[in-house]
């Protein structure tokens, strides 16, 4: 058996799809296909036609023909089996056997033909095997995507490192400038420049008037202990902006002139950790937990892994000779582990965190994120502990898919900066969002629909979203990724007291709590 070509043609002999399995010129195959309609008689029940050179084995498909062109020495029984298998595959890939439907799925049909026939000979395969072979992933493509993603992650880490270095240099520069202006203020000077901003020493133009500099110094000295005002960047904008608007600058300058300390921060982007404000108390203890949860789309929990840390931040060296008395909350599913330099017996017996060598102080400094004292982990299979559950109900109707999503948050958890990412197939137009509790954004580059809610509390513990997209397999809408943060943690760890080792009054301390998601998915 040698199959020269497998084709789908119209009644008039127009070739819609044709795959040649031996070396053959285009003129030759077009001649064979054009001659076929003239050879087929009306009213006959035959499934093959022979000429002097080739044999046509065919099957009518409404207004089209599925056609095999073979040599005259091939086994016609095997040719008919091959024709039947190709007919089933065409029905699997093309729901409407007309010229438009065949044209849309031309490449899929050709790939399926290649899996059935190799070098003119039929392969021993079934319809399900051919579909599986055509849908298999490419190892090279997956490896390329992993390498590309690793480069992107390295670039992001480098950007964060550079940004941190720039912030540190700005902070040092501000400290140097303030330390240089204090002696002039104490002597009653009105600043370097006059009202026009011209320096009296060098005769060059300055960046601001002496009055402005003096007012800023006075406001920093008057407002020690006053709470800082946070200026949050707007969440919406028309493209990328390299700076704030003029009105925003004027507003901030007016606050500074009134004596407020401005701490500028930006709204956290997707996947970024919420930025913690700089510590203001001598001792700051931070409870941070990270969630790794995998939920099943039909209900139930596949994985629940919670990892937490207690970190310590001390500003001054004099406050570093301390011990911390805590209360762990007594949750039976949480396993604790102390740092190697922490006295384990003291923690086990008295719930006190202290160094093995009491003569050594804890590390100090504001630049670091703190020193980890205690770690804990919890792995459970209890779905009632899940802080955020989401249900997805896709339904296909005609040429459209209606998708309904609903989230639910239990009592006790208030979530901030919630982002739900739904993967979508490549779309020509954005999805048609019918109803939503919150805001949405479509990332055409990543084919992601992002549903965002700034805050979930008692007023909106449940919400829904409904959108319409072209017909798609519901399995392509998973996995759904969720990101959020919260000031409520699973481990009810409390800092009871700070115990100074050298005696005296204990330093003032504050405690922070943060729960974030590391990998939270519905699969």
Fold and architecture overview:
With 523 residues, the chain is α+β, with helices and mostly antiparallel strands. It contains nine helices and 25 strands. About 14% of the residues have low confidence.
List descriptors.
single chain; 523 residues; alpha+beta; 9-stranded mixed β-sheet; 9 helices; 34% strand
Q: Approximately what portion of the residues adopt beta-strand conformation?
A: 25-35%
How many strand segments? 25
Give the biggest sheet: 9 strands, mixed
Number of helices: 9
Gross geometry: elongated
Q: Biggest sheet: strands side by side, in what order?
A: 13-15-11-10-25-23-18-21-20
Helix content: 25-40%
- What are the segments in which pLDDT stays under 50 over at least 5 consecutive residues? 181-245, 264-271
Which value, in Å, is the CA radius of gyration? 36 Å
Main structural class? alpha+beta
Rounded average pLDDT: 79
Spatial gap, N to C terminus: 47 Å
């Amino acid at each position: 058996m040698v199959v020269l070509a497998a084709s789908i043609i119209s009644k008039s002999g127009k070739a819609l799809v044709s795959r040649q399995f031996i070396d053959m010129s285009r003129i030759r195959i077009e001649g064979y296909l054009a001659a076929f309609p003239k050879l087929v008689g009306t009213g006959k029940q035959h499934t093959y036609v022979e000429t002097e050179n080739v044999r046509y084995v065919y099957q009518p498909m409404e207004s089209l023909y599925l056609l095999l062109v073979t040599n005259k020495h091939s086994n016609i029984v095997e040719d008919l089996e091959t024709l039947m298998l190709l007919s089933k595959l065409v029905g699997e890939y093309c729901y409407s056997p007309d010229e438009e439907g065949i044209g849309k799925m031309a490449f899929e049909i050709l790939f399926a033909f290649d899996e059935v026939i190799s070098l003119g000979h039929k392969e021993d395969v079934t319809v399900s095997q051919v579909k599986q072979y055509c849908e298999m992933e490419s190892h090279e493509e997956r490896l390329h995507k992993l390498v590309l993603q690793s480069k992107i992650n390295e670039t992001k880490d480098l950007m964060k490192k550079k940004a941190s270095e720039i912030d540190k240099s700005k902070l040092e520069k501000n400290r140097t400038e303030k330390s240089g202006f204090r002696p002039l203020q104490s002597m009653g000077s009105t600043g370097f420049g006059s009202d026009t901003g011209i320096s009296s020493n060098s005769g060059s133009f300055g960046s601001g008037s002496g009055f402005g500099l003096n007012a800023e110094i006075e406001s920093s000295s008057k407002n020690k202990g006053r709470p800082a005002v946070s200026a949050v960047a707007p969440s919406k904008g028309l493209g990328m902006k390299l700076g704030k608007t003029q009105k925003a600058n004027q507003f901030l300058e007016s606050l500074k002139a009134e004596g407020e300390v401005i701490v500028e921060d930006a709204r956290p982007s997707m996947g970024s950790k919420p930025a913690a404000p700089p510590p203001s108390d001598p001792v700051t203890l931070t409870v941070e937990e990270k969630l790794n949860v995998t939920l099943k789309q039909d209900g139930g929990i596949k994985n629940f892994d919670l990892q937490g840390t207690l970190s310590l931040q001390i500003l001054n060296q004099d406050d570093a000779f301390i011990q911390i008395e805590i209360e762990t909350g007594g949750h039976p599913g949480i396993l604790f582990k102390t740092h190697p330099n922490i006295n384990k017996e003291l923690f086990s017996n008295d719930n006190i965190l202290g160094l093995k060598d009491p003569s050594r102080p804890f590390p100090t400094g504001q630049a670091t994120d703190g020193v980890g004292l205690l770690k804990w982990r919890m792995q459970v299979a209890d779905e009632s502990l899940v802080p955020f559950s989401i249900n997805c109900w896709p339904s296909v109707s005609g040429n459209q898919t209606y998708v309904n999503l609903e989230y639910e948050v239990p009592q006790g958890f208030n979530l901030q900066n919630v982002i739900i990412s739904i993967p979508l197939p490549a779309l020509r137009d954005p999805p048609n969002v019918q109803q939503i509790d919150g805001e949405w954004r479509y990332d055409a580059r990543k084919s992601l629909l992002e549903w965002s809610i700034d805050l979930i509390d008692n007023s909106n513990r449940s919400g829904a979203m409904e959108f319409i997209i072209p017909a798609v397999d519901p399995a392509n809408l998973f996995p759904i990724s969720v990101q959020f943060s919260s000031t409520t943690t699973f481990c009810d760890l409390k800092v009871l007291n700070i115990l100074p080792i050298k005696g005296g009054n204990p330093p003032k301390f504050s405690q922070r709590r943060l729960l974030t998601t590391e990998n939270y998915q519905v699969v």
